[in-house]
Structures are given as structure tokens and as C-alpha cells.
């Protein structure tokens, strides 16, 4: 079968001689119609970071990335529940940048697609479910001001879900260095957009939200929650989003949700955590049921994922697809492994 094979940082190439998988016990095989390039895939592509977690290794040793995909069940193994050949499904598991991929049957990795949702939309289910978990962990209260760092597909999903769930936050500020992504963030539900390339992001947020003073800490912007979907990119200039988040949160009761991956270790001024009694929460994935919830938000029309899909490529152009996703202007790049 055809698959994208990762060889080294900056080098990923198509192959047409990868062995087609079989459904093992508790698995189905999915014919992949659409697979997204994730931010974590880009970390691996740039630096090799987290490589061991982001590929499916075949028996011959090929490393196939891709973990956000949708397609059709073509084979069902023993102990695979009531799944049937021909069902449309969303899958989450390594190896999705291939014509076929094995997927374990459990609610975290396999869920049926509702009618009216396309394969392209469904390939963005996992990022939206990630956003649902971040919002659940953040426990945003009505009127609280929120900052979202990084408005690629993950951050935009946070904004879409925040609006769709009717949480009633105060100011919702998107921060990114891409003007096109910031424009999309405003359409997705942000009330304000801040580009650090244009000036001091901390001052810009303070001007929007106002400041508050507290015992033992300097005056700070009145931000209750920062959701960090950017993480740490070695090539980016200026303070890391987590550092800005600690300075940006209000004097007490602030929370930062860390989702974006880190390409390297980071020196950081941690004193604001003590002075402001900040809660730092990591978020990795989603809870059972949030994949299905994400699909229902799409099926109901409460979120529009189609507008976030900026580029589509056949598997043969996987190298160009990764370069496009990393170019700073793309929102979501999809691969179509079975495109004619």
C-alpha cells in the first residue's frame, strides 16, 4: 500500500511498497479518506521531537506518522465489538498517513461519524476534542477574561467550542504571530486579536482587560485563564507563551492550561506562580465521550470546521504538505491517502 514514511527531521517521503495491515484482536482496519497534520507532527518534522510517540512502526521498520484521520472500516478483527465493514469512522492512532491503518476499538480511538459530517471535517475531530478537554479543565466562569496562545487548528477549536458551549466568558483574546490566523480567530469567536510582532503583548492584553493589584504581587492584567496551544518552538523569538502567561494572569485565582508541545527545555521565571498562586494544569488528549461530543457539535452546525481546512494534498505530495503546514499561514493541512 501507499504510505508516508518519516526518515529524519525535514525528510518525509511517500512509499508505495508498505505492507497493508491486518485487523488484530480488538482492532479494525480503516481505509483513510483524510488525515490531518498535527502540530506535534510538525515538532517531529522540524527537530525529531517526540518521534517515538508519533509514528506507527511496521514489521519492516517503516515509521508512518499521522493520528487525526477519518475513513471507512474495511476489516474487523475478533473481539472488535459491533463494528461492521463499511461504517464511516473517526480514528485516533498512529499511522494514519497511509491508505490503511489498524485502529484499536475503544472510545478514545474509534468513534462512528454522524450523518452530514464529511471525511475532511471528521479528520479535525481529535483537535476539537482536545479543545473540549482544555475548556473543561479551565472551568471558565461567566465574565472571566481568557487568553488563547496559538490559534492554529487547536486554538481555533478552543475558540469555537467556547462559543458553542455558551460559557459566557468576558474578553477572549487570541495571540499569534500570523495575521491570517488571527483573522480566523476573530471569526471563530475571539473578541480581540494580539500579534506579538506588532508590540508588547503583555501591555496589549492589559489595555484590553485592565489590571488588578494583589498582596505580594505586582499589578497584572485581569486575565483569569490562559490556554497555551503554542508550547515552545525553538525558532520563535521572544519569551515563551508560558512565561508570558505567568506574567499575564491576575494576582490570584489564575489558571494556565498547557497543551502545546515543547521542542526543548526552557528557562523560566517561576516566581509569579508563587506570588499569584497560579494553578498550572497540563492537558493531553481528551476524556471518553469528547470525540463523540466534538462530532455532534459539527453535525449540529454549532461549529464549522470546513473553514479551517486551508490545504489538501494527495499522499504523493506529503513533503510539500508538511512544508505548507509549517509555513505559518496554513490553518489545517489534510492528506488524502486514497485520492485518485
From TrEMBL:
Keywords: Metal-binding, Oxidoreductase, Zinc. It holds the Pfam family ADH_N. Residues 7-335 form the Enoyl reductase (ER) domain. The keyword Lipoprotein does not apply. Its cofactor is Zn(2+). InterPro entries: ADH-like_C, ADH-like_N, ADH_Zn_CS, ER, GroES-like_sf, NAD(P)-bd_dom_sf, Zn_alcohol_dh. It comes from the Bacteria. GO terms for molecular function: oxidoreductase activity, acting on the CH-OH group of donors, NAD or NADP as acceptor; zinc ion binding. Belongs to the zinc-containing alcohol dehydrogenase family. PANTHER family: L-THREONINE 3-DEHYDROGENASE (PTHR43401:SF2). This is (R,R)-butanediol dehydrogenase / meso-butanediol dehydrogenase / diacetyl reductase. It comes from Pseudoduganella namucuonensis.
Amino acid at each position: 500500500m501507499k504510505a508516508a514514511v518519516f526518515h529524519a527531521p525535514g525528510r518525509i517521503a511517500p512509499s508505495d511498497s508498505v505492507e497493508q495491515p491486518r485487523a488484530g484482536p480488538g482492532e479494525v482496519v480503516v481505509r483513510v479518506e483524510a488525515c490531518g497534520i498535527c502540530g506535534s507532527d510538525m515538532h517531529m518534522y522540524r527537530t525529531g521531537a517526540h518521534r517515538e510517540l508519533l509514528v506507527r512502526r511496521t514489521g519492516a521498520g517503516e515509521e508512518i506518522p499521522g493520528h487525526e484521520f477519518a475513513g471507512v472500516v474495511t476489516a474487523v478483527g475478533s473481539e472488535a465489538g459491533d463494528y461492521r465493514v463499511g461504517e464511516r469512522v473517526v480514528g485516533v492512532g498512529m499511522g494514519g498517513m497511509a491508505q490503511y491503518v489498524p485502529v484499536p476499538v475503544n472510545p478514545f480511538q474509534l468513534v462512528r461519524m454522524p450523518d452530514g459530517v464529511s471525511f475532511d471535517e471528521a479528520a479535525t475531530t481529535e483537535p476539537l476534542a482536545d479543545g473540549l478537554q482544555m475548556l473543561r479543565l479551565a472551568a471558565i466562569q461567566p465574565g472571566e477574561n481568557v487568553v488563547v496562545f496559538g490559534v492554529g487548528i487547536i486554538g481555533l477549536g478552543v475558540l469555537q467550542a467556547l462559543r458553542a458551549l455558551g460559557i459566557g466568558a468576558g474578553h477572549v483574546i487570541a495571540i499569534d504571530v500570523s495575521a491570517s490566523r488571527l483573522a480566523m480567530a476573530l471569526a471563530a469567536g475571539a473578541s480581540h486579536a494580539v500579534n506579538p510582532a506588532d508590540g508588547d503583548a503583555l501591555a496589549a492584553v492589559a489595555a484590553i482587560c485592565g489590571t488588578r493589584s494583589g498582596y505580594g504581587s505586582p499589578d497584572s492584567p485581569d486575565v483569569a485563564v490562559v490556554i497555551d496551544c503554542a508550547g515552545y518552538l525553538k525558532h520563535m523569538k521572544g519569551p515563551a507563551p508560558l512565561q508570558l502567561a505567568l506574567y499575564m494572569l491576575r494576582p490570584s485565582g489564575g489558571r494556565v492550561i498547557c497543551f502545546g508541545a515543547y521542542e526543548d527545555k526552557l528557562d523560566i521565571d517561576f516566581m509569579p506562580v508563587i506570588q499569584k498562586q497560579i494553578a498550572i494544569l497540563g492537558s493531553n488528549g481528551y476524556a471518553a465521550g469528547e470525540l463523540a461530543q466534538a462530532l455532534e457539535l459539527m453535525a449540529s452546525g454549532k461549529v464549522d470546521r470546513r473553514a479551517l481546512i486551508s490545504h489538501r494534498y494527495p499522499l504523493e505530495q506529503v513533503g510539500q504538505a508538511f512544508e505548507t503546514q509549517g509555513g505559518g499561514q496554513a490553518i489545517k493541512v489534510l492528506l488524502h491517502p486514497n485520492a485518485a
